[in-house]
Amino acid sequence: MDKLIIIDGNSIAFRAFYALPLLSNSSGLHTNAVYGFTTMLLKLIEEEKPTHFLVAFDAGKITFRHTEYSEYKGGRQKTPSELSEQFPLIKDLLKAFKIPQFELSGYEADDIIGTLTKAADARGEKVLLVSGDKDMLQLASEQVTVAITRKGISEMDRFDPEAIKEKYGLTPHQIIDLKGLMGDTSDNIPGIPGVGEKTALKMLHDFGTVEEVLANTASLKGKMKEKVEEHAKSALMSKELATIYREVPMETEWDSFRYDGFDGQALSTMFRKLEFKSLLEKLDFGAVSAEAEDLVVESLEAVAVTEANIGKLIEQLDDHAAIHVEAIGENPHQAVMVGVVWFIDDGADNTSYYVPFALLQSDAGKPLRDWLSDASKKKQLFDLHRAQLALAWQGIHLAGVDFDVLLAAYLLDPTDSNLSLSALSVKYGLPSVKADEDVFGKGAKFRLPELAALSDHVGRKAMAMARMVPVLRDELEKGEMHRLFYELELPLSAVLAEMEMRGIAVDAEGLKTLGVELGKQLDTIMSSIYKLAGVEFNINSPKQLGEVLFEKLGLPASKKTKTGYSTDAEVLERLAPYNEVVGQILHYRSLAKLQSTYVEGLLKEVRPETGKVHTYYRQTIAATGRLSSQFPNLQNIPIRLEEGRKIRKVFVPSEPGWYMLAADYSQIELRVLAHISQDEKLKEAFLQNMDIHTKTAMDVFGVEESAVDSNMRRQAKAVNFGIVYGISDYGLSQNLDITRREAAQFIEQYFAVFQGVRRYMDDIVKDARRDGYVTTLLQRRRLLPEITHSNFNIRSFAERTAMNTPIQGTAADIIKLAMVQMADRLAKEGLKSRMLLQVHDELVFEVPADELETMKELVPEVMASALKLDVPLRADVDFGLTWYDAK
DNA sequence: CGGGTCACG
DNA sequence: ACGTACGTGACCCGG
Residue A848: which of A583, A632, A653, A636 has the closest Cα? Predict the structure, then answer.
């Protein structure tokens, strides 16, 4: 049997546009609506397997409805240019899909669809009609199913007449009456003012049609009767406007909608232009497009090196080369080595040499190992940090790396969430490489392919990497980020790898003891909660907890999440006065977190041989330039509450008689703000070394220092936080639990005093709009394409990001500088002290007793002088036998 | 594998 | 009118 899919083109394009973030490709073309449209088409083709297909569009301009009602669709926002520029792309896309398109001047897509579904009905063919507009429900029939998008575009609700009956108690045709009564603000159809969906449905259930409702106003009551009578004409006109016209004079020849598959060639070209990397990979055009002439595929001779031919590679070793280190696994401290690849480009031929790791480690591999460790042999690679760690665990010290493709790509676009070689080769228009996932598989299906395929794949990775080096080097130069790259990030990679290899010692016995105590407390609290609640349930399940609190115990639910009641700490704290159990649950939650994440989780990461944990700092994740930490995350060890803070006691020196020493920047973000904004008041506060929150309270409340009480200081502190985050009255009001009006007043008073800060906030948003990005003091860059988005929320988010990123990012620049300088000083001065951790504004060291005095001076000195600002930087230092004591 | 929650700066 | 504070990672639950 045939099956026709009809898509309401304008409606789906709008839906996709507003549902997805404003994506754009590297030439600045917006692509989110096209992307959403594409994924929907692919999904429909795959799941529905249509035999016939078409998309209907509004032809735009005036339709016959305007001639009847000039206000039709009035008051509707102009289509944002970010969307209208995408319509031509969608039309090209449909051509590549080989899906027929219909539009007819004077008619809307609705009418074309109405006419076509009528024809299909008459022929007795199955139709699936896809739209975001509930009006379409009037076209449902035994033959025609209407799918309405829900929550964005990925999910749809399907309606046949039965489903419409179930949901609204109406026939498809009565949908028109529904709209006649309630109107439709988006089309500026008036309906009857004051009649919403509920009232309209009730009337229709009683009377059936608009006409019958009007004929029976006598049985309506009071205000409603007046309203209906007064707006009777409007209701009739609205009904007429809502009626889809089904007699458009047009070709309805069934066979002209036949769908026999897309043009893979055209589609892959289209996807490449739009930079739909994931879709390109998903459809695997690799094979198809490799033959296509428009795609450059470089030839490569991929040599799998053996003991017999290793001499050929050794012979060719030069003073520089692109290499690729293939190691399997997310955690580089536990990576399984596959091998190392050398890419040799001698001008005539491209040759890659894949050296299996066992061979590299054998006697025959010695010259290669020496080459890797020779700092005078310059290497370019992808992900130096990871390669260095993986090799170090195998006893190979990697040195002399002068370019890292991953690091460069990150600096060029720190928000890119897919920085794989495969994705980058597409992004920078270079010969493509297969994704690792496609070659190796993933999860349980992961396996290395046979030698020839493996050596080809890793060889192509090395080649792609080599091709990317000059491109990215130029881009860094253009963005004035070469110093940031060569003088900061690249040296930092090595510093981080060194810190991580060293690891930090953990007192596992102490941790276990803590775990036993927590276990006892958890048992006690658990039984107490069950008793108070009168039922046993899984306290860790927000779903079950919600049911107990809000249904069984009948506590007032306030916040909702997508899936049900919210039970987060903020909600529970409000509920605490109602029932004793709530406080217990909060306590249970905090202890359970300590137990699962910080006792059990941390214990799993301790190496039994050394008693140390080795975190992995990620240098290419955070959009602002900060580091992040994994396996385990050592940047979120508890400190705010004493119960959790005790966890810090298990972080100890790795040598007897040594100390832990920690130094943290004081108010680095506000000091950075003072420097960037050049705000006189803020600068003055730091030049006089005042308590910044107290000073803010004095200025905002206009009082003397002695009159600032703890509450005023607390509020001033929240305002300072808000300023750094890109303030909004709503956010501040939530944080301080005050009204928005009060919050707005605070902000206004703050800006009245700190006028330079206000100027900075205004200017940085303007700059971001003009340039499309913001930068830190060291020229770190973050692209903000959404700063001009027509959607208020999306745009506001970008504006706050524009305000925050230069501040957070410059602070990140500064501590990174301090780390590189610190590593240098330790080496130069022959100190035995070791840098172990970075926690955004804090550095942690282990220090032998006889270096304590030196380090207490040196660390804060280096941190404070890492970068010269117009206000002083300050770092406070302390030491003790554990991290806990170095406070 | 996504959502909810919570730990940190 | 819109409905949010900025940046991360780990754990648990439940489909």
Answer: A653
Residue A88: half-sphere exposure toward Cβ, Cα within 13 Å: 5
Residues A569-582: tens digit of each pLDDT: 989 999 999 999 99
Sign of CA dihedral A622, A628, A630, A633: negative
Cβ A841 to strand B below 7 Å? yes
Full set of structural domains in chain A with CATH: 1-168+251-281 (3.40.50.1010), 170-244 (1.10.150.20), 301-503 (3.30.420.10), 505-613 (1.20.1060.10), 671-803 (1.10.150.20)
Average pLDDT value for residue range A718-731:
91
- Identify the burial level of A546 via C-beta atoms within 10 angstroms of its C-beta, where 0-12 means exposed, 13-18 middle and 19 or more buried: buried
What pLDDT is attached to residue A286?
A: 43
Distance, angstroms, CA A37 to C1' C1? 28
A628 touches strand C (CB under 7 A): yes
Bases along strand C below 7 A from a protein CB: 1-14
A841 CA to B2 C1' distance (Å): 32
> Which nucleotide is closest to A811, CA to C1'?
B9
CA–C1' span, A806 to C10, in Å? 28
* Cα dist from A289 to A90, A281, A432, whole Å: 22, 12, 10
Is the CB of residue A590 inside 7 Å of nucleic acid strand C?
A: no
Which of chain A's residues 764-803 bind strand C, using a 7 Å CB cutoff? 792-793, 796-797, 800-801
The per-residue pLDDT for A295 is: 47
Which residue(s) pair with A341 in the sheet? A324, A354
Which positions on chain B have an atom < 7 Å from some protein CB? 1, 3-9
pTM, full prediction: 0.75
Packed helices A384-392 and A405-412: angle between N→C axes, nearest 10 degrees: 150
